[in-house]
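Q: Predict the bound structure with 2-acetamido-2-deoxy-beta-D-glucopyranose.
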Amino acid sequence: MTFHFLIFLAHVLEAVAFSIPLLEPQEASASKKAKPCSGNTASTRQRWCDFNINTDYTTVVPNTGVTREYWFSIDQITIAPDGVPRFAMAVNGTIPGPTIFANWGDELVIHVTNHLQAAKNGTSIHWHGIRQHYTNPSDGVVSITQCPTAPRSSITYRWRAHQYGSTWYHSHIGLQAWEGVFGGIIINGPASANYNVDKGSLFLTDWSHQTADELYTYAQTQGQPTLDNGLINGTNVYNSTGSRFSMKVNKGESYRLRIINAAIDTHWKFMIDNHQLTVIGMDLVPINPYTTTFIDIGMGQRYDVIVIANQQKVAKDFWMRSIPQIECSKNVNVDNIKGIMTYNNKARTPTTSAFNFTDSCIDEDMSNLVPIVTKSVSSTEWSLMEDVTETKSNNLFRWHLNTTTLQANWEDPTLQQIYNGATTFAQSDAVIQLPRAKEWVYLLINTTLSVAHPIHLHGHDFFLMAQGKNPWDGSTNCMLNPPRRDTAILESTGYLLIAFETDNPGAWLMHCHIGWHANEGFALQFVERYSEAKKLIDSQALEENCASWKTYDRSYNVKQEDSGI
Ligand SMILES: *[C@@H]1O[C@H](CO)[C@@H](O)[C@H](O)[C@H]1NC(C)=O
Ligand SMILES: *[C@@H]1O[C@H](CO)[C@@H](O)[C@H](O)[C@H]1NC(C)=O
Ligand SMILES: *[C@@H]1O[C@H](CO)[C@@H](O)[C@H](O)[C@H]1NC(C)=O
Ligand SMILES: *[C@@H]1O[C@H](CO)[C@@H](O)[C@H](O)[C@H]1NC(C)=O
Ligand SMILES: *[C@@H]1O[C@H](CO)[C@@H](O)[C@H](O)[C@H]1NC(C)=O
Ligand SMILES: *[C@@H]1O[C@H](CO)[C@@H](O)[C@H](O)[C@H]1NC(C)=O
Ligand SMILES: *[C@@H]1O[C@H](CO)[C@@H](O)[C@H](O)[C@H]1NC(C)=O
Ligand SMILES: [Cu+2]
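A: Predicted complex:
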């Protein structure tokens, strides 16, 4: 109770300070004349116009008055990122797709047109990590917030950049994200340390010469397939073909890299030989900077790092290494997923050595991940426990949370069911209802199996309360300012305790970000504040998109062969 009162007080204070409180959507869009904002400079990164790195972005958002509109075409292509040609799917023909750039507070409108008619694939785009505060219908997850968007049809997503930092968008149907349908999102705002140059997104992906859809049969029957290769920002070498990613730096300058793990089933350690990395953010949460020789990055996670080019006396060319951790990843090109950071104009083959590391699939140390904007967790109103198991039925692997494996229907998304007034959901929809506002949910996930899983929650940054190997002794992080993010690792034979507040009505998926596992049912959904969620639905847009999919499906008889997400 005391806690709720404090939160209320904080809102009022901020409203006085900035006159732009963000409590409910009506107030968020209540327009005040927008001022042009010049952002910050290399030596004032903590500032952002009238705001700064300490501004609580969960309650305050700059009113920029700017709407950024993008048009995406989802295409089928042949591509040879490592010299070996392959069929792929991509946004506007490139892997990664075009980057979305915005400023903190901008409105985004993105129109997506499906051109996957030959593959007969529906599509959707999910804006990973974007809070979608009161815009759940734009979350872009088939079977949950929409039907698949049919070939030759379009869909429009609208959301506001309430957070800032680095993230990505990707398809959220079947394995399409890992056929190449993804790209970066950069939302400019303050940063917790200074740097000279923003180098943009740096995607770490695994890659195979067969498509993910082709490998899925093996994944379902035999388990984890061995992948051929990995790419750094969409390129690498394989058997002396292809070309390496290279990045030019000038001595004495500092560079920001926005590192994203977009792999289907690879946990990376990332490092640049001889250079320290200063980590300034995880997912979309700015943190107190800390320095390390490498980062552990799980699927779906992001780290913002600053590299200072101060090793020119050691060499002119350095390896950038993306190293699959063999405890949980299988790759035939483990030692050669590399790019080059060069102080020259043209990169030459480096002779530098890697920092020492121990192979493992774990998160960065929790004690290093201290958010700048301090937030506290309250004691729980909802304690949920989910154990993770795997079974074979009809000879195919399925993942279960508390014995439930998600099997949702493309043509009957949760939001449609809610709009139609459904009060109960099928067991196979794996719904947990959270009917009341401003309550705290604690969710413990644990497993006896020796497989690690990156757990991703939509619509919220959760608080990381406990994480490690079984048995859990019951202790948790301090309630004051634990790490906050949208994806965290459930270690093999381990546990993960996360907490979040019911502050965002909608149908929100929580799932493992390993592509195979999500397809095999490792997911559940929270229906948060049902009656308010219902009011957010644009039934005409939802129904038109579903109608065009159903018409397409009747003509082409498309088979749904996965969990539906
Ligand atoms: C993507 O392609 C579409 C259609 O060809 C084009 O209109 C649009 O400008 C492109 N978008 C970007 C961000 O490159
Ligand atoms: C997309 O097309 C591929 C290749 O035709 C197919 O294997 C896959 O199942 C389709 N995926 C979806 C989500 O329809
Ligand atoms: C990676 O590719 C994206 C998209 O093409 C580009 O915006 C970005 O600058 C590249 N990253 C680096 C570090 O070069
Ligand atoms: C790679 O090169 C080796 C040695 O030249 C050759 O045996 C092998 O077949 C090649 N692999 C592929 C996939 O091209
Ligand atoms: C890695 O460890 C070995 C053995 O302890 C040591 O000789 C070597 O210098 C270390 N390498 C680096 C880059 O720290
Ligand atoms: C999961 O199962 C456990 C053990 O049966 C039970 O205590 C718990 O409430 C279940 N969790 C949910 C979210 O249903
Ligand atoms: C998960 O944790 C709970 C609470 O500590 C414990 O009772 C349960 O046995 C654990 N389950 C697994 C699969 O480790
Ligand atoms: Cu998993």
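A: The first strand starts at residue 47 and ends at 48.
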